[in-house]
User: What shape does this take?
Amino acid sequence: MKHKIVVTAIPCGIDLLVTATAEDGEIIARHICSKEANIDHDTGFTSDWQHDKYDKYYPDGWELIKGAIITEGPELATEDLTCPFCGDIGYDKYGLKWHLMHSCDDYENTEEE
Ligand SMILES: [Zn+2]
Assistant: This one.
């Protein structure tokens, strides 16, 4: 039987934080998507992106399931955002974007793994 990997998204500043979660609740992959239309590609529905991480976690087979994709929420209105990767606090939505692109070590580590 194939293991299920559930992809969900929540607002993260001006972008979306997309998470791929294993059946046991472990987060296998996290990714920032600039828009909802990129999710299928960036999480591996329509590409091989992240597949190495999924293969490593479930060597005997897996399938991707689309979970809740939330593209708007109260997080977008706040000016006091927390980086979901390194936990730094106090960003507004544009500041968080800049931080992820330029100064977040944990985000870069996630990408390179
Ligand atoms: Zn960070």
